[in-house]
Amino acid sequence: MTKFLDAALEYADRGWKVFPLRPNTKKPIHDGGFHNGTTDATQIELWWSEHPNANIGLNLVASGLVAVDVDAYKTECEWEAYKGDRPFEPECIHRSARGGWHYIFKAKEGQTFSDPCSGVEIKHKGYIVLAPSTFEGKPYTWVQDDEPTPAPDWLPGTKESKPSEFGVSKDKQSDKDLIDLIKTGQWIENIMKLVARYVQRGLHDDQIHAVTDLLTLKGYTVDDTRKDVQKLIDGARRKGWDVRPDSEDEPTDALQGLSISNGVELSERDFPMQVWLKDNLLPIPNFALIAGPPKAGKSWYVLGLADELTSKGRKVIYIANEDNERRLKQRYAKICDFPSPNLIFISGLSSEKPLPRGAAALRFISALKKQYPDLKCVIIDTLQAIREPSRKENYANVETEFAAIRKLAHELNITVIGVHHTKKANGEFESTPIDKILGSQGIAATVETIVVLEQARGSQDVNLFITGKDVEQQEEHRLHWTEQGFSEPQNKALAERGPFQRKIIDYVKEHPRCMQVAIADELGRTKQQVNAAVDTLLECRILKMIDGRLVCSANIAY
């Protein structure tokens, strides 16, 4: 193993989600960037076996961390002045390749941050580069790698203030230049500029006073300075300096965090092989939807799917909001002969409280992943149980709601399967299976894999319609209902054939390139009966005629 792989695995053992960067750069190798961060040792070993000298990136927010990135090598860095005498005792300290500092702390779930001053970034919803990576030929190193402590309460947060615009000004003077001028006695004009900048950057009043108190001129008290500065702060806020129009945003800020590549870069980029929970059906990570009419067997189907995944060693959580534990036990006993510890049940009707909804549901799923680090799949039966009921069902709202679930699935590197309903048939027109999904079109547009169950006429069997971003469209499968749930998928065209036609298919399978007369002799039927049945099978493309002889079509599975 290389030193990079060793380090990446050590970080993963700490619960830090890592991903590969191009050697000697800060640029992610794979599409998706820091969202690919994982603690999965198998995936990490695969990445670094393909790119043994890849730098190591750390997804901060997914790891529950925040980094105070201090560019101490920059002359305009104001960290020491801003920090002042505030308590600051980091125990996880990392040195950047250019000589800056990463002070790494634990972040509370849902906590957000903004930049405090020039030369300092609070990195949380993004990533940093970790040792032993290099940049421009210089290494990242650890100064102290103890367990991170909670982030200081005095770091500015975007819950109360707008994201910092520190370091962006309309004149060429840096904040340090203004402070130097103030200290020489040029107070009024320069303190007004400084305060206006601080207000514009979203700093709190006490954060501004922490800097300006140190600029009290000789002959004045700190209280005098505070009174004058407070008037300036209030005036700047009244004039709207704390609300900057979007057009004034720095272009680089607007593009930060986006994965942008030109055609050559994209063509030359290496991507890891697609990982599947179930081949050609469920990729990981993924947000999948399984829809069907009431009583069509959706719950039986997903429980059978869960049993199949757990039998392969995958950890699955099945959230059955509409079932109690007694019913789940009975259903599971019919499907599975050997219960698995890898399948975790959460019964909605047997729980003391309802499932969380909306944003709380996302935190709930994150908590499940934290409780079960090897979790690969969460099945939510039905998806409506975690949706925000107060939201109006329109395209924009649905797209926002479902995109948040999709994003979470990718951040946690899991597959989320939502069970949903289809519309009642109205008989007015024939629609595609996707059109039958209940609710806004934003649902089908946002999920990544769609499986629609349609009940076969006159039976409990169901036909499957499958499509998705990583899945080829499939319409040829049928599930046969048994007392133990659904069978393995069968070819729908074959399932619809009668016993006589099936005997013909079986004979052709065993005797390829045969003729109708041989079939008639074998089955004891007239040539007219065999010819009529064969014509139907040829029309359905189950059989093919080659040089006057019969063979089974290549796409027919048995």
Task: Please count the beta strands (DSSP E, at least 2 residues each).
Answer: 25
Instruction: Tell me, rounded to a whole number, the average pLDDT.
Output: 84
CATH class of the largest domain: Alpha Beta
CATH superfamily of the largest domain: P-loop containing nucleotide triphosphate hydrolases
Spatial sequence of strands, sheet with the most strands: 15-14-16-17-13-18-19-20-23
Major beta sheet summary: 9 strands, mixed
Tally of separate helices: 18
Please identify the structural class as seen in this structure. alpha+beta
Helix fraction, binned, reads: 25-40%
- Uncertain runs: 158-171, 244-252
| Domain tally | 4
For this structure, the quaternary state is: single chain
Q: What would you note in describing this structure?
A:
With 558 residues, the chain is α+β, with helices and mostly antiparallel strands. It is 33% helix and 20% strand. The strands form 7 sheets. A 9-stranded mixed beta sheet has the order 15-14-16-17-13-18-19-20-23, sandwiched between helices. Helix 1 packs antiparallel against helix 2, helix 4 runs antiparallel to helix 5 (187-200) and helix 5 packs across helix 7. It is elongated and about 120 Å long. Residues 158-171 and 244-252 have low confidence and may be disordered.
